[in-house]
Amino acid sequence: MILPKGSIVLSPMVRGSELAFRMLCRRKGGAHLCYTPMLRDDDVLGVAAMSKGASSEGETSAVDLVIDNAGRVNSVDETAYLIYESYQDSKNLIVQLCGNQPKKLYQASTALLDLFSSSNADALPWGIDLNLGCPQQCAAKGNFGAFLVERDAEMAVECLRSMRRAIDEYPVGEDKRKKPLLSAKIRLWDSGVDDTVAFVRRMKGSIDMIAIHCRTREEKHDGRADWEAGKRLAEELSRDGIPVILNGGVSNFRDALTLLHQTNCHSVMVATGYLKNHRNLANQPVSGDDLRPQNLATEYLDFAEKYPPPSFLYIQKHLR
């Protein structure tokens, strides 16, 4: 289940890496592996309870979404929809969770595996990831993502240990033998590369790989990504046998090759580049007609028709 070196990975994006866009990026944009949007641990546990209740009453686990005028959906229902649609591409999918309590993340990881095991999915998800890099205010308010790391790095590490135990202790049936890998997505520490390396090394024994955004929390997605820092991180962590996926500053396939060559990282993660133009990440000739905005939009809409997103807010994100 090791990710091939040199792979291009679709980043987790809230209302951006849903099934329709994942399928588009795989088939038209060269993505080898994709992340789901971030799922909150509380919501995953809510889905598990809802699914168990439906099962006990002999009902299916389909979600009847109620969408308000602003395109918003109840968070548990939206999470259920995102999980259920993920059964269709679980073999090369990483499900990203967020939270700040080890016990609850243990429960959510186990619940997630239960949902996939009891589904018609071909396999358990390829991986499970803990979001330790979100720089948005929702993360500050919820004490997860990059804010959890800054406020209590040891708690972040303990959360990963707990998720590791959940995966290791999960019983796997003969039809779904491979357990998920565990990863975390982080950002550069303000205090520098050495402290970032030291933090990742504290995760050793829990994670199978690490994804690192080459910007700090305060930089969010602005400014030039620090590929030199990424190079040092890849060099240092490779000595510990930790594959490093670098994120930030990749707009096209040439950028991806440059980042791989300059840093010797294991793989490259892309978010904004895919949102702007999924075709630019494919390792194949692209004609002028293929790059016209209306054609790019039509390609996404074709996938959205086949794999409908939970609400129009997802479609809006891809077409704005």
Characterization of this structure:
The protein is an alpha/beta fold and 320 residues long. 45% of the residues lie in helices and 13% in strands. The chain contains 13 helices and nine strands. The chain has helices at residues 19-29, 41-56, 75-86, 102-117, 137-142, 146-151, 153-169, 193-201, 227-238, 253-263, 272-276, 293-306, 312-319; strands spanning 8-10, 33-35, 39-40, 93-98, 127-131, 181-188, 209-216, 244-247, 267-270. An eight-stranded parallel barrel has the order 1-2-4-5-6-7-8-9, surrounded by six helices. 47% of the residues are buried. The model has no long low-confidence stretch (mean pLDDT 93).
**Percent of residues in beta strands?**
5-15%
Structural class: alpha/beta
Q: Count of DSSP helices? A: 13
Uncertain parts: none
Q: Helix-strand pattern, N to C?
A: EHEEHHEHEHHHEHEHEHEHHH
End-to-end distance: 36 Å
Number of strands: 9
Largest sheet: 8 strands, parallel, barrel
CA radius of gyration is 19 Å
Label the overall shape: globular
Average per-residue pLDDT, rounded, comes to 93
Q: Roughly how much helix do the residues carry, as a percent range?
A: 40-55%
Strand order of the largest sheet: 1-2-4-5-6-7-8-9
